[in-house]
Amino acid sequence: MVKNEKMSEIREFFSGHTYLDPTYDPAFKEFFGDEETLKSFLNGLLHLEGDNRIRRLTFKFEEEIRFRTPYPKNLTFDIFATSENGRFFDIEMQKANHAFFIDRAILYNAFLTIRAKQEMERSPEYMALGFDEQRKRRYELPDTVSIWICNFDLPETGGEAIDRWNVYSKNALRRGNAGPVSPKNSYIIVNLPRFTKSADKLERPEEKWLYLLKNAGSSEALPDFGHGIFDSALERIKVDYVKDDFLSVQEKAMIAQEEIDCRIAEGRIDARKEGREEGRAEGRKEGRAEGHKDGLADGISIFESLGVSRELLDKARQIAAEKQK
């Protein structure tokens, strides 16, 4: 098949869609592939206003983190970002739940913390500190935020669209003081299926970003939020404007994910079917065992009623016990 025919098929694959779905990895990176966009998203999600807002931000996609712990361990951040005041972010787009997902989030956060600590100690500001001041700050940690955008319903968020996790003192919570032990290490979990606000009810910037993330790939028309930054983000994932090779990458990501979803669904169906069959088989087995047990008991009772000798009764009980093993 010639290239033009292949591209026609790919274009047909996206026909009827104005925008690419930004919950898939390629379009996700294009959607957030601008400093102003990412700053707006983070400032909104963190509720930063006035002088606390992020003014400058550097970021990388697919940032590989490697440690020896004690053997080599690698993982890759979707977006690794640093603000001008030394705050570090890991932003992950997660399409599906999997075993030990919470453990994975904790592991990524641990790697983010270590990486942020290394970056902080290599910064010109830290290197300019005196010897004693550096020793004093040996265990100082920078502010880190792990952000997980989940395109599946995560029960741990308690049914809310956005949840924030920190380390808390159980005693402080019991006393009604819910402040975190340290504000430096935190998680923001976005439960995208639980975000159900309609376009006319959106108020805060993060709500508008989440609305676009959730709906851009399936909506023909999107609301005009009156700010060019939203238009620019959408423009980068507009089907008619992206290059052919990028469409190919997006198509492969979508097909791969669809195959994974199909296999997960098939696995769940097979597991339920197998569970029902095992349950029926177990039920039959337990029924036979219970019936056999009852039959042996009845037999011993009959022996007793006939006045058989103690030796025969003991032998019958021994046989019954062996049969029940």
Q: Notable features of this structure?
A:
325 residues; alpha/beta; 16% strand
Description of the structure:
This protein is an alpha/beta fold. The chain contains eleven helices and six strands. Strands 1-2-3-4-6-5 form a six-stranded mixed sheet, with helices on both faces. Helix 3 (35-45) packs across helix 8. The longest helix has 62 residues, at 244-305. The chain is globular.
Radius of gyration: 30 Å
Overall helicity: 40-55%
Largest sheet: 6 strands, mixed
Q: What is the N-to-C order of secondary-structure elements (H for helix, E for strand)?
A: HHHEEEHHHEEHEHHHH
Structural class, judged by helices and strands? alpha/beta
What's the total count of β strands?
A: 6
Across the major sheet, the strand order is 1-2-3-4-6-5
Given the structure, what is the number of helices?
A: 11
Fraction in beta strands: 15-25%
- Shape designation: globular
Distance between the termini: 67 Å
